[in-house]
């Protein structure tokens, strides 16, 4: 294929349990061999989910390589099935321009998680005090970390363009690439659903990968912009993909036991922050923009860094949160309700919280609440008035010339568009009996009230 010849030889092969082989060129290998990328081997993809599913020990490193592979396969299939003019703005060398876009996409997907902190999402907001996200750290690294910057620039690519694909508002020319990196049916989700399910030993995130990567193509919408689309016959694929994500979310990252360990991790990080034990690796300006990043410190800041502190506190002062994170103790779930389509147990939830306090128990000391609202996909939310080019996926119905709204043609997706609300209460072991008794009392009261 002319595109691959322009793209360059990928002579470095890595075995992968999901895709068989992942191939890299020299520049991509240089990135992987940098200390800051090797650090991702020591950042678990699923944080403390390994305490629920023991084999979930995989890292952001393997996930990042997987996302590169998925994005490449999506792009190549779009190239095969779309008008090349929608992929290229270059009149003189369109294949060369498309090959350059593929390389930009591969760099962006390989580096999309480069800014993740220890324990990934579970600790990010606390450590950074909500001043920045891992995407913003990643953009700074791409533009300023010399070994990565040099590897990108040797391919004739501006690091600002690669970093832009980690942002929410890329230039219109790169809108399709952005959707592949982080849209609603993107390469990131596609990889972690398969990889996390595989390592956890569950089926919740599985879907038809081969058909998935072959389903996308480009079509010009009424605004004259290329839009990512699928054909009507593939609507079932989208339904299956999002159903897989729906079940995966509830059974893997938001599993009841995992949520309890997330609370313990949060409390322990608050303890570390109070003692100023985190390295000052990032400096913000007065507007909370990243001013500088200490790359040498960041290269060594990983899950193991925090676990060394956990082990120290576990041995020295018997810190309850360190004990939990060493898996010698755990919070006890005394209320667990997931509100999906219909039904509501919010009144018992509020009643139990009130009764716990009335019995002298202190929130964030004796008992803890976990509340989360999940949306399966923004794809399922109603479009705004910004125009079709803002909508990430069109649906081609019966060869109509313009993309339609996928939500108009699927009852399943319209139901999945409703948010999922999770309400949980956890208690320390010494308050187990009191908390369970109050929970049982509340449920009995409201059940009798409903039956009356």
Describe the structure.
Pfam families: HD. This is HD superfamily phosphohydrolase. One of its GO terms (biological process) is dGTP catabolic process. It comes from Desulfobacter postgatei 2ac9. The chain has 452 residues and is an alpha+beta fold. The chain folds into two domains: 2-255, Hypothetical protein af1432 (Orthogonal Bundle); 258-373 and 420-451, Growth Hormone, Chain: A, CATH 1.20.1250. It is built from 20 helices and eleven strands. The protein has helices at 2-7, 26-32, 35-38, 60-81, 94-110, 121-128, 134-144, 146-153, 159-164, 175-182, 187-200, 209-213, 235-251, 256-274, 295-299, 303-316, 320-325, 346-358, 411-416, 432-451, and strands at 12-16, 20-24, 217-220, 226-231, 282-284, 290-293, 332-339, 367-374, 394-396, 404-405, 420-427. The strands form four sheets. It has a four-stranded mixed beta sheet. It has a three-stranded antiparallel beta sheet with strand order 7-11-8, with helices on both faces. Strands 1-2 form a two-stranded antiparallel sheet. Helix 4 (60-81) packs across helix 11 and helix 5 packs parallel to helix 10 (175-182). It starts with a helix and ends with a helix. Mean pLDDT is 88; it is low at 382-391.
Shape label: globular
Tally the beta strands.
Answer: 11
Q: Which ranges are low-confidence, i.e. pLDDT below 50, for 5 or more consecutive residues?
A: 382-391
Structural class: alpha+beta
CATH topology assignment of the largest domain: Hypothetical protein af1432
Fraction of residues in β-strands: 5-15%
Percent range for helical residues?
40-55%
